[in-house]
Design brief:
Helix content: under 10%
Distance between the termini: 49 Å
Number of helices: 3
Strand order of the largest sheet: 2-1-3-6-9-14-16-18-20-22-24-26-29-32
Number of strands: 66
Structural class: mainly beta
Largest sheet: 14 strands, parallel
Shape: elongated
Strand content: 35-45%
Length: about 775
């Protein structure tokens, strides 16, 4: 009995809506002006696909839809307009003389043509005298319709007698102010949905439904709701993917790139079930943090758009979550990972560290290779349980220099089905000293982080800088040193492991310098890079000449290795070309070479493994495509198919080629060079946030490795002209407060890092734009 009563009351609220025709209620349209001065260009006059409408409730027979003789009644205009045409509104167009159904409720304004409805004056929708459409009834689509650059005012109705003594006129029925997509495409492009000019009316915004008004009209196959190019008054009370009056089985697509809702999307109907699938795409400016699946039994698929950043997202109930390239999502604190499938694309990050119960019911799909992989951040108190498979490659707990989480020894980070062909990878520098082990236990494949147990066996010096001609005191001469363990694999010592090694430099006069005394020498010094394992040589005296010897020794095994370096002012004598190898002795040409920026001073190379018995690879570098290439690295393991070139100048283009070699009679037989590839070592893009206090905006950003400072820019529109607000010269200053702003106005900000290189300034990419309405 109670359920029946609730349904009757709901029907009364949504249907029995009466209009007060002669009473000046709260929503009297006192601010609406029927006529506007318009400026129609000659080009618009000649457009055959444009129909003009003025007044909206004038004579059904007046006007012919031209610029000089607009239609006077909206019914006439909608009847005569053709598919593909544009209906231009002249001033304010009204629809208040509506028809009613058998319950005396207003029937919706039906739009049954594929048209665009926009203003004619060129004024902004937020202008007081902008062109607009004022409707005292719902709107329902019977075709694909775009509302563009107008005021779109759906006036909430009042139910007579409801509301008690507090409201003499009755209670509002705001949901009567609804746009019903009805299985069609609804696009709202730069619309102002504010009713009137009273600040108390700011909350009275239209609703959107994917369904129909009762059984009115015809329901299409799929509702698509697009809200694009929002202005400061583009706001909606709520979006219901489903219907108010009927159970529906249609698919619904919702695309938002703006903060137009109160943080939530309803994927079902208001009181009726939706069994179709709902797809939601969230852009960088959207403020959706959760999804209400009440009355929805279909799938909910959510995509976070490219370059978007979403904090505090509750993904509970989502069936499939996709992070497009460079998207960043942070899980809401305490929320469950109650989800089926996750897709992580290039450079995207899914931060699970605040979540509980990390149970993925379907598959995790990553990238096809590590260079295109995204990242998952998992705390050392969490384990991600995947019911099905890991597909593709996903980075664990590190991406670039911003997103990182330390790992714990002997902790199980991921469990998945044992048939998983995909993998997780650890960064061998950030997480140096740790490796990721895979084991099969029952029906599970388990990824566990453990400390590496490397037993030293040998050294191999790199072939860089065997000769240094015309030395510069401003240059870092980085020399690679490979540490080989007892299994023949390269590794980098970690923490106390470095205590087992001793480094010395013997000068031309016989003086021997260790790591400490080298810092005081006036001619030459060296520094050990404990992150990369490289040794950096600095020649402080540019007139210094002679042979120096770099040596390293393992104190436990007494194993040592030395590298001779000739320093002189003479020109390099070109070596004679090698005698060509016999075709059958050479390895194949290296294929699949790629070069990408790894940081502000490094570039990473990758290539395909040689397929015909190569023993290693030689990497060459030049500063011009057709210039001289010098040997940068000799790789002695056939399984190592990548190299990170460090110590580079920021924003400088470097060219690379690689060739494989095979050891025959203790000599290297080289294959053909690979194709030439190039890349720049560039500063990373920072991520910003903007907050507001009284007439102030505070911009904060993440630190960029290698930056000398930052520049902050602002504008008064997202696509407007950005001016430089502040140059930050301290690398540790990561915020800026913009003062003396106008309350109620929205400001847009972006930040980029810069670096001083040899007296010049080079810039990193701009951050994504963030906006804030000033309090």
């Amino acid at each position: 009995m109670k359920i029946k009563t609730i349904k009757q009351n709901l029907s009364l609220l949504l249907s029995c809506v009466l209009i007060l025709t002669n009473v000046a209620n709260t929503y009297a349209l006192s601010s609406i002006r029927a006529d506007k001065n318009i400026n129609i260009t000659a080009r618009e006059t000649s457009q055959a696909n444009v129909v003009y409408l003025k007044n909206g409730e004038g004579s059904l027979t007046l006007g012919n839809g031209t610029v000089n003789n607009p239609y006077q009644n909206i019914r006439t205009a909608l009847k005569n307009i053709k598919n593909g045409q544009t209906l231009k509104l002249v001033g304010t167009v009204s629809y208040t003389k509506y028809e009613v159904d058998n319950e005396k409720a207003p029937l919706p304004l039906m739009i049954n043509k594929n048209i665009t409805i926009e203003g004619s004056s060129g004024k902004l929708p937020t202008d007081v005298d902008a062109d607009g459409l004022v409707v005292r009834a719902p709107i329902q689509l019977g075709a694909n319709v775009t509302f563009k650059n107008i005021k779109l005012q759906l006036v909430p109705q009042v139910v007579l007698g409801a509301g008690g003594r507090q409201n003499i006129l009755g209670a509002q029925s705001p949901m009567a102010a609804t746009i019903f997509a009805a299985g069609n495409t609804l696009t709202l492009d730069n619309v102002n949905t504010k009713v009137g000019t009273n600040s108390l009316q700011d909350k009275d915004r239209p609703y959107i439904s994917g369904g129909t008004y009762k059984n009115n009209g015809t329901l299409g196959e799929k509702s698509v709701i697009n809200i694009i190019n929002p202005n400061s008054q583009t706001k909606f009370a709520a979006i219901y993917a489903g219907d108010y009056w009927n159970d529906r089985n249609i698919d619904v697509e919702i695309n938002l790139n703006s903060s137009v809702l109160n943080n939530k999307i309803y994927t079902g109907g208001f009181s009726k079930k939706l069994t179709g699938n709902v797809s939601v795409r969230l852009g960088d400016k959207s403020n959706i943090y959760s999804f209400d699946k009440t009355n929805h039994s279909g799938n909910l698929n959510v995509t976070v758009d490219k370059d978007s950043y979403m904090d505090n997202l509750d993904i509970n109930g989502i069936d499939e979550l996709t992070l497009d390239e460079n998207a960043k999502v942070i899980l809401k604190k305490g929320s469950d990972l109650n989800i089926k499938n996750i897709n992580i694309k290039k450079d995207s990050v899914l931060d699970l560290r605040k979540g509980n119960n990390l149970n993925l019911k379907g598959n995790l799909t990553g990238a096809n290779n590590v260079n295109n992989a995204g990242c998952m951040l998992i705390a050392s108190t969490q384990t991600l349980n995947i019911s099905n498979e890991v597909i593709g490659i996903t980075k664990l707990n590190h991406l670039n220099t911003i997103y990182s989480q330390v790992v714990a020894n002997n902790h199980q980070y991921v469990k998945a089905n044992k048939s998983s062909n995909g993998d997780f990878v650890l960064d061998n520098i950030v997480h140096r000293g740790y490796i990721l082990e895979k084991n099969i236990s029952g029906n599970n494949k388990i990824w566990t982080v453990v400390k590496g147990n490397n037993i030293f066996k040998d050294f191999i010096w790199g072939s860089e800088y065997n000769e240094i001609i015309k030395p510069s005191k401003y240059k870092d001469y980085d020399i690679s040193l490979s540490f080989i363990n007892d299994k023949g694999a390269n590794y980098i010592p970690y923490n106390q492991d470095w205590d087992d090694f001793e480094f010395t430099l013997k000068k031309a006069d016989g003086t021997i310098l260790d790591e400490y005394s080298a810092l005081d020498d006036m001619d030459i010094c060296f520094i050990v890079n404990y992150l990369s394992g490289e040794i950096t040589l600095n020649i402080l005296n540019e007139n210094y000449e002679g042979k120096v010897i770099l040596s390293v020794k393992n104190k436990k095994t007494n194993k040592s290795a030395s590298k001779d370096i000739i320093i002189s002012k003479e020109k390099i004598v070109e070596p004679k070309p090698e005698t060509p190898n016999k075709p059958e002795e050479k390895p194949n040409k290296v294929l699949g070479i790629k070069a990408t920026s790894n940081s502000y001073n490094s570039i990473k190379l990758t290539w395909n493994k040689a397929i015909n018995g190569a023993n290693g690879y030689a990497v060459y570098r030049s500063t011009s495509k057709d210039g001289k290439y010098t040997l940068r690295k000799t790789i002695t393991s056939k399984n190592t198919i990548e190299f990170t070139d460090t110590g580079l100048d920021t924003n400088t283009t470097y060219y690379y080629k690689v060739r494989a070699y095979r050891m025959i009679a203790d000599k290297k037989k080289y294959g053909s060079y690979s194709e030439i590839v190039c890349a720049k070592s560039v500063l990373s893009k920072t991520t910003i946030t903007v907050s507001s206090k009284s007439k102030k905006a505070t911009i904060k950003w993440n630190k960029v490795l290698g930056a000398s400072g930052y520049k902050v820019y602002s504008a008064t529109s997202s696509n407007g002209t950005y001016s430089l607000k502040k140059t930050i010269t301290s690398i540790n200053t990561l915020s800026y407060t913009n003062t003396n702003l106008v309350s109620g106005k929205t400001y847009y900000y972006k930040v980029r890092a810069y670096r001083n290189v040899n007296g010049k300034v080079v810039y990193g990419p701009y951050s994504a734009v963030k906006s804030k309405k000033i309090k």
